[in-house]
UniProtKB/TrEMBL annotation:
This is YprB ribonuclease H-like domain-containing protein. TPR repeats lie at residues 347-380. It comes from Syntrophus gentianae. SUPFAM superfamilies: Ribonuclease H-like, TPR-like. InterPro entries: RNaseH-like_sf, TPR-like_helical_dom_sf, TPR_rpt, YprB_RNase_H-like_dom. Residues 126-296 form the YprB ribonuclease H-like domain. Residues 1-29 are annotated as: Disordered. It comes from the Bacteria. It holds the Pfam family TPR_6. Keywords: TPR repeat.
């Protein structure tokens, strides 16, 4: 049975009213969307004990009666547009929007690992988030609400939401996003590389429209946020980062898993009230993107006394510097930490710094750090191992290396099986080398 026949059976229609001309794809797609709308309108939605999704009464208000929005039209049709405005002095948690207008784009380029971004400024960004009919993506998933944020010439932050009131309005929404993106120079999302951007790319293809996002350098905040703050947050969800980093707590926020249900019930009933939570959730996501961008970028220029960060955050920033091949910046950051951070962070900073010195063949500096670490804590396995390797492989002083390994095996109360096996192997090897050099002298 063909797809057309299946649609006829589901909708109860007679022989196909589709035009027989196969070249008229746009009209065929519109007709298919109309039929899918008809199917959805007959499908009973999942029940919910928390919300009443019954059909609205005749006097149910329209969207424009409840929101600061209006219907808008373009060359592809009509859709509903909602605008929200944030002054530069407004804040999202502990960050103000005007901080983003003066963003250090070198730091943004570092976060994204894309040197192109250093050429722009904060006002050239397009912040993007979508709400969809499903959470797994795929060609059957529609981005029915696209939230876009940017700065205007007066430094105010604009949030514009493009809402497809039915499947037939998708093309108009995509065209509106194209118009917005035309004046932007780079893209900021949260997990957009894995979901939003790929989903929108498929929707542009299905609608035979050029994708305006393809050429934009892309900063996906999820990955650097996880790298910089994963050591002290329980997960990398946007709301978790908001609470722990920005001090922003959402009240009565709609879980993302409920968003598709709200939209399908909207298609069935046109009840606007349950959709208000969806619009609010999406607007908060967009403003959170702006605030989180400031927070991630500023860490590279903040001092260790900044109230926005803890010392271990700077250690993570140094590791990101190293991963990006910026050894000098990593070294400078860690050296500052060794002078000002609490002891726990100082230990981590010194260990990381010693490895930079080691790779740079600055052995005196590296050895001094290892010896200091071991003097502070004789059970410091990292320092003992690095010193033992230095004595064995650089100085060929097998006896000093053997004593370090022997002391660790006697001092450290617990090893994992793998660690113990490695240390016993090193102990046996060094003992053999010492006996070979001094056959009459015993070790152990």
């Amino acid at each position: 049975m063909s797809l057309k026949d299946r649609l006829r059976r589901l909708t109860g229609e007679e022989e196909s009213p589709l035009k027989s001309d196969p070249s008229d794809h746009r009209e065929q797609l519109s007709e298919l969307r109309r039929r899918l709308d008809a199917i959805l309108s007959r499908r009973p939605g999942p029940s919910s004990s928390n919300h009443n999704f019954s059909r609205p009464q005749k006097n149910m208000p329209a969207l424009q009666d409840l929101l600061s929005g209006c219907e808008e039209s373009n060359s592809s049709g009509s859709f509903f547009r909602i605008d929200a405005l944030r002054e530069g002095t407004d804040s999202h948690g502990n960050r103000q929007f005007n901080e983003l207008a003066a963003l250090d784009m070198e730091s943004v380029a570092l976060l994204a690992n894309d040197s192109q971004l250093s050429e722009f400024d904060g006002k050239a960004a397009l912040f993007l988030d979508t709400e969809t009919t499903g959470l797994s993506g795929g060609t059957g998933t529609l981005a029915f609400l696209i939230g876009a944020g940017w700065f205007d010439d007066e430094g105010r932050f604009i949030v514009r939401q493009l809402f497809a009131r039915n499947f037939a309005e998708e093309q108009a929404v995509l065209t509106a996003l194209t118009d917005i993106a035309a004046s932007k120079r780079y893209l900021v999302t949260f997990n957009g590389k894995a979901f939003d951007v790929n989903l929108l790319a498929s929707r542009y293809i299905l609608n035979r429209l050029d994708n305006p996002l393809t050429a934009l350098p892309h900063l996906d905040l999820l990955h650097p946020a996880r790298r910089l703050f994963g050591h002290r947050v329980i997960n990398s969800r946007l709301v978790t980062l908001e609470e722990n980093l920005l001090g922003f707590f959402r009240e009565d926020d709609l879980p993302g898993s409920e968003v598709p249900l709200r939209y399908f019930n909207w298609l069935r009933s046109r009840n606007p009230y349950p959709m208000l939570d969806v619009f609010r959730h999406n607007c908060l996501d967009i403003t959170a993107l702006a605030a989180l961008t400031v927070h991630l970028a500023e860490i590279f220029n903040a001092d260790s006394g900044s109230p926005h960060y803890v010392s271990t955050d700077f250690c993570a920033a140094a590791r990101l510097y190293q991963d990006r091949g910026r050894q000098a910046e990593a070294c400078s950051l860690l050296e500052n930490l060794t002078r000002s951070a609490p002891q726990s962070a100082t230990k981590e900073a010194r260990q990381s710094l010693s490895l930079i010195y080691k790779r740079a063949n600055q052995w005196d500096k590296a050895v001094n750090l290892w010896e200091d670490l071991l003097k502070e804590n004789p059970e410091n396995i990292f320092a003992a191992e690095e010193l033992a390797k230095w004595h064995e492989h650089r100085r060929k002083d097998f006896e000093s290396a053997f004593r370090l390994v022997d002391d660790i095996l006697k001092t450290v109360p617990k090893f994992s099986e793998q660690e113990k096996e490695a240390w016993l192997h090193r102990h046996s090897r060094l003992q053999g080398r010492c006996n070979k050099e001094h056959p009459r002298r015993g070790h152990g």
